[in-house]
Input
Amino acid sequence: MNMDVYLHTTLAMGVIAIAYYAGQYFSRTKDIEDVVDSLLNTLEKEGFVATVFDKDGDKELVPISELIAKALKEAKKTT
Output
């Protein structure tokens, strides 16, 4: 099969268009960040997870073991 100029151009433009739209689709990290942030805020507000802000201002999950140790230490102080 011989490829003429028009077929070659059409195929090349098709590949370029697919690459462009694939790049647009996979570069939606901002949307993902918004969903994760909303999920963490909801879980924190409803008391399912605990978070603290680190020195950079980012939210960080607090391990359950730290929460239990802190609660036990405070309970010993009050008794």
